[in-house]
Design goal:
mainly alpha; 302 residues; single chain; 13 helices; globular
């Protein structure tokens, strides 16, 4: 698939997972639902690899790198974000999560020695300027009291974890680890680590057999995890962690569009301006520099 297709699929799927996650909230603890989600995704990817004849055998060193990716990307990120949900609105969490773009640029430069693309920083700045306008009602209603600062800290910690996981994935790909196979193992590690967290905090091990919970779980595991993460991490390996992370800035817009139809969200002038700024930033980030013209040929008379 082309980069544009990978980008579009990632944004559309992750933009729609917000509605699916709503159906996961209920008798099952949120972190246990995360363990179910990535456990199922890991099993499905492993089965796919076996059917397609792809080897899941890795060296101990590779397992350590994949486990580290699973810890940050498929475990800690979701635990922290879910823990932040009771304290903040999902719109404000989406605004905070969009800071993954500058985090990826910084972490990529520090950990991988990647050059900082000023065009990416400019586009990210424009997009980030639009996010507060888009979610201004949630921001205006934010209060530091009653756990607001706790939610703020948890959201930023979860975003940092996602950024570190993205950079680790980019490093793993540069070391030759295949995306699908490492995702199968990494998601399994993430599920086991999340389950260990659930057990450690002595949460009840329950399951919801309702059609709503099962359908949302399957959607989140198959599309939100297997397909979207496969597309995103492949894109990350091709274009770098900074450009790939802009999908994280745009997917809240998709979530808001779905909320307009299913939850009666009302658009405002500030919200419309915010969307325009995000899309403009998107174009700046994705715009490739023009290749320099080839040097003019000289004809020798000798």
């Amino acid at each position: 698939m082309t980069d544009s297709v990978l980008y579009t699929v990632t944004v559309l799927i992750w933009g729609s997972t917000w509605l699916a996650i709503r159906f996961q909230l209920g008798p099952v603890p949120p972190d246990l639902s995360v363990a179910y989600r990535f456990g199922l995704a890991g099993v499905l990817l492993a089965a796919y690899c076996l059917v397609m004849g792809r080897s899941l055998r890795f060296s101990l060193r590779a397992h350590a790198s994949i486990a580290l990716q699973g810890l940050f990307l498929f475990c800690a990120t979701y635990i922290l974000i879910y823990l932040a949900t009771p304290y903040l609105t999902t719109g404000l969490i989406a605004v905070l999560f969009s800071t993954i773009l500058p985090m990826n640029v910084l972490n990529g430069a520090v950990l991988l020695g990647a050059p900082v693309d000023h065009r990416v920083l400019a586009g990210g700045a424009v997009g980030l300027l639009g996010m507060p306008l888009l979610f201004w009602p949630q921001i205006a209603g934010f209060e530091a009291s009653s756990g607001g600062l706790i939610g703020l800290g948890l959201s930023l910690a979860g975003t940092l974890s996602a950024s570190l996981g993205s950079v680790i994935s980019a490093r793993n790909q540069s070391a030759g680890l295949p995306v699908v196979e490492s995702n199968a193992v990494g998601m399994s590690y993430g599920a086991l680590l999340t389950l260990a967290f659930v057990v450690a905090r002595r949460a009840p091990i329950t399951f919801d057999g309702s059609l709503t919970y099962l359908a949302s779980l399957i959607y989140l595991a198959v599309f939100g995890s297997v397909v979207a993460f496969g597309c995103y991490l492949t894109l990350l390996g091709r274009v770098g962690a900074d450009r790939a992370a802009y999908a994280m800035v745009l997917f809240p817009v998709i979530a808001l569009a779905l909320s307009t139809f299913y939850e009666g969200y009302r658009w405002t002038l500030l919200g419309t301006v915010g969307v325009a700024l995000i899309l403009a930033g998107n174009l700046i980030v994705l715009r490739r520099p023009h290749a320099p013209p080839p040097p003019a040929r000289t004809v020798s008379l000798n």
